[in-house]
Amino acid sequence: MTHRVDERRRFRLIASLSAVAVVAVGTATVALAAKDGEPAPVRAFVSIDEVAANVVNPKVQQGGTSGMFTVDCGTNENGKFSADNPVAQPGLKHGAQHVHDFVGNLSISADSTDESLEDSDTTCTNGDRSSYFWPVVRINPKANVSSSGSSPDKLKETGGGEIACPSVKDRLPAVPQQARDEVNRNLELLDKQVTEASDRVARNENPGDPNFVNNAILGPLRSKRVATLDRIAIAIGRSAKKPNLTSLVECDLRFGHGGAGHGDHNQAPRKFSGQAQAQAQGGKDDSATPTIKCPSVRGELPGVPDQAVDEVDRNLALLDKQIAEANQRLVTTKGQGGPNFINNAILGPLKDKRLATLDRIAISIGRNAQRPQGLERLAPCGLNEDGNGGNNNGGADTPPPLAAPSGKDLELVGNNGKIVRPAQVKIEYRGNATSKVTAMPKFLKMITGDAKPTSRGPANARTTWTCGGFEDRLSDKYVICPNGSKVMRVHDFPGCWDGQNTDSANHRDHVAFPDKRSGACPKGFKAIPQLRISISYNIPKDVQEKGQYQLDAFPEENHNPFSDHNDFANVNSEQTMAQIVKCVNEGRRCR
């Protein structure tokens, strides 16, 4: 039995031991993680010399492809940090409970739509508007100074676990009048399903089985939501374009909301004082870029007459675009202007645009039905500081909002220390060993790795850690590198696509990894350019040896290095994707 296997089992054992304690606080709550998150212990670090070569590169066969297209999107020089995960948790502000580095798309947030992503600017030199994001790495001088690692005693009292699902009501298109009642019934059913699942979590029916919540609660909840969301889509589709609600299926347990109080995501957003704006803007490296927080419009509209559906949808998309443009401006003007710059140059103009757009929506509906009153109250926006926490479906049962990153080091929920800016980020689109690749569809979403291998199991987790010059081996532990060698993370994404879907209920089933030995895609999947993101860091040798660098993670993971992951949303233009495919299939090296 290798030391590496022992370490994985230790992390799983923590979940098993901690699942025993249960606390009920309004919503379903389970004590599973240390309140502040424990640092990864020294035994979670390994010298790269002790890691055997384990990377298998399948031999390129006749008909296979060996080309590579490299994209330069920078190293997050703009300081676009966020605890949002727009791929895995759309609509949940700060849902990751850890901070991500973002490169590429400048406007992306938890509230982004495909259309708003396409309208964004980008940090990529070739104009690629895709979004690439991953958890930051920090140096924490306090880690492993005294006793380290987690223990059952430390895991008994925590911020608790709550069922959290993406908001549905706030992400629907215009709902036709004929479908309004049926849609409302199913939205209420979504609330009921989450309440029932939360009650089962609170009862802790099988405390000895760490997989019980996943298999007996979250799994059935997913199946119920698939059916209910399909009924909503069918109801809308009878009179308008049928929406794709797949990305809103997946629910999860979340922990340690950071003490933020209950909030109403439709309350009038708070404008920032000069001091608060200065803190929000900060210096180049001293703060997270804030994001725009606007009241929901979709959830406030009545049933829309058939004659007005298209016009209302166009204006709802315009509202999304206006928010995306404001988010982008927050990134590109960070640190500029005086104390009132955000209010005067961004929030003020945004309010004026929203007033005009909301008026057009009201007029459009009013031509064939009673004109909705009071939409103007939804025009003012503010900045996301505390987040809205996401909803079960936009209904009454709203979990407490998750805390936003705070302070100059953007700390939250046990993720402490100074963020390390990558020294290099290499983004590569690669070939397939057995066949030509076909174009990725625009807006394809993909995840590699698993942010929660402790609580969900290791099936989707991937080894990613290595050192410069040692890329023939990857470790599931943090690595200690020789002098002159950079700490690296290598993230390979799925390279096979089902040919139909840009997302799936669990954000994984629509794509697959090639066979490790042959490189062939599974039956029913076709090869696409396989994305690889390699991230390098200059981390002092003594910090490595002391075990004082760590990955941002969910609180229950305690900085488990095996929880490393990366997310991607493809917003390449069709022309750029065609160039990528041509380059890869011709066996060339392109930029």
TrEMBL record:
Span list, region Disordered: 143-166, 260-305, 378-408
Record keywords, A-Z: Coiled coil, Signal
Transmembrane segments: none
Coiled coil: 309-336
Signal sequence annotation: 1-33
Domain DUF1996, first and last residues per copy: 427-570
Protein name: DUF1996 domain-containing protein
PANTHER family attached to this UniProt entry: DOMAIN PROTEIN, PUTATIVE (AFU_ORTHOLOGUE AFUA_6G11970)-RELATED (PTHR43662:SF3), PTHR43662
InterPro entries documented for this protein: DUF1996
Entry keyword Transmembrane: no
Source superkingdom: Bacteria
Pfam families in the record: DUF1996 (PF09362)
